[in-house]
Design brief:
44% helix, three-stranded antiparallel β-sheet, D-Maltodextrin-Binding Protein, domain 2, five-stranded mixed β-sheet, alpha/beta, 441 residues
């Protein structure tokens, strides 16, 4: 992370902490200083939204209910196209390059940094929402305010990547509590494997579930780039992470090399695995499924943070969600009004609730909403945006970080090395060369 970004992250964290302290004391409410924002949607405006769709039907239902409310209130028709994560990214890139397509795109990670000059400046909306419900968590600013001045999109939140496990099976393996460090975690995975109840995590090009590979590398002190954006993935720290990963992989259920985002959900709900990394969608499925066998799992499903490695601090990586308005839109005021409307508490709270805590809040002011405590198993999914490291850690986010992430360089390196397809050294060298094509110093 550059010194500039590091300073902003620390200052932002201090601001979030101060806000939380004041709010807890009753002296401050994020809503106390309500702002006003005068947007005048264009006459005859219509909007088209392209957004991701994954796993939680309540997310789509609540989002579409809010869209209807927007149209009822403003008279602006809105068409919403729902696509899988892997499909949104290329369609967004085509739209940016051709100057035609959806007015608004909800995408993942730092896709906005692939084409920042193609995006509408939404600083006025971001500042309005941030002052009313914030502050924004620092990670959101790093993703979508790359120059520290102009917002090129609005944070929507993140799908928290937690460890999802069967409590009964972990206990049967000899563990009364979930391990908090990497040594204990490896012992647990070995014990689960020995019991015939193995775990497994995605090693294919999975947009969300492949992010556990960032945790693995960071936990041992490795990183793709340093603070000056120099590629440093070929390092002793990465080697230690990959050697640990080889032992971890030996405990996985067969087939994880080809797993994409849906695969671990299916394997877990089918009873094939006892542990994986995932958002809250597995638990959500146990609550809403009509299959008695799946429903029986509900009480047994538990959530835990990733264990801490030798670096001694949490190294969380989560799937960040952004909201972008394309500069080519014919209706910029209407598009900004749509984002403002959807981020207001009257809409955002029911959406988070409908999604069953699937998306973590990007704003400190929304951390106290009832959805996070209405079910204790929701609470771990409240803070991913607050705690996460951007995928481009430790460098400055931009085209290079976005491109390297979209190319799955870290995921591919981990998969090659821990499966034995390449030696760790060969995998690191390949990742180094691939990353250097993006990070041209």
């Amino acid at each position: 992370m550059s010194e500039f970004n590091r300073r902003r992250f620390l200052e932002g964290s201090a601001g979030v902490a101060a806000t939380a302290t004041l709010a807890g004391s009753g002296l401050f409410s994020p809503l106390a200083h309500a702002q006003t924002l005068a947007l005048r949607p264009e006459k005859g405006a219509t909007l088209r939204v392209l957004r991701w769709s994954r796993f939680v039907q309540g997310d789509i239902d609540a989002y579409m209910a809010n869209v209807k409310r927007f149209t009822d209130k403003t008279g602006i028709p809105v068409r919403v196209d729902n696509e899988g994560w892997e499909d949104v990214r290329p369609k967004a890139a085509v739209a940016a390059n051709t100057g035609a397509g959806p007015d608004i795109i909800l995408s993942t990670n730092d896709d906005a940094n692939l084409y920042p000059d193609k995006l509408l400046d939404v600083t006025d909306v971001a500042e309005y929402i941030g002052k009313k419900y914030g502050p924004w968590y620092p990670a959101g600013e790093l993703f979508l305010k790359p120059d520290g001045k102009k917002w090129i999109g609005l944070p929507l939140g993140a799908a928290g990547a937690m460890l999802v496990y069967r409590g009964s099976m972990v206990k049967a393996a000899g563990f009364d509590t979930f391990p908090k460090d990497t040594d204990g975690f490896l012992k647990l995975m070995k014990a689960l494997h020995a019991k015939g109840t193995p775990g497994g995590m995605a090693l294919g090009n999975a947009t969300g579930d492949g992010l556990w590979c960032n945790w693995l590398i960071w936990a041992f002190g490795g990183k793709l780039v340093d603070e000056k954006n120099k590629v440093v993935i070929d390092s002793p720290e990465t080697m230690k992470a990959l050697e640990y990963g080889k032992e971890l992989y030996a405990t996985f259920i067969p087939g994880t090399l080809s797993w994409l985002d849906p695969n671990n959900n299916k394997a877990f709900l089918d009873g094939q695995i006892s542990l994986t990394n995932n958002g809250i969608s597995i638990y959500y499925a146990t609550k809403t499924s009509t299959d008695p066998k799946v429903k029986e799992m509900q009480a047994d499903v538990q959530h835990a943070n990733y264990p801490i490695g030798p670096v001694g601090v949490p190294t969380e990586s989560h799937l960040f969600f952004n909201q972008m308005i394309m500069k080519y839109t014919k209706y910029p005021q209407a598009a900004k009004e749509f984002l403002r409307f959807m981020m207001e508490k009257e809409q955002f709270d029911p959406w988070l609730t409908g999604a069953g805590a699937y998306v973590a809040t990007p704003l400190a002011g929304y951390a106290s909403l009832p959805v996070w405590t209405s079910d204790p198993k929701h609470t771990p999914y409240r803070d991913p945006v607050k705690n996460m490291r951007p995928a481009g850690y430790a460098g400055k986010l931009g085209y290079a970080s976005a491109g390297a992430g979209a190319d799955f360089i870290v995921v591919n390196m981990v998969a090659e090395a821990i499966s034995g397809a390449k030696t760790p050294k060969e995998a690191m060298e390949r990742a180094q060369k691939r990353a250097e094509r993006y990070y041209k110093v």
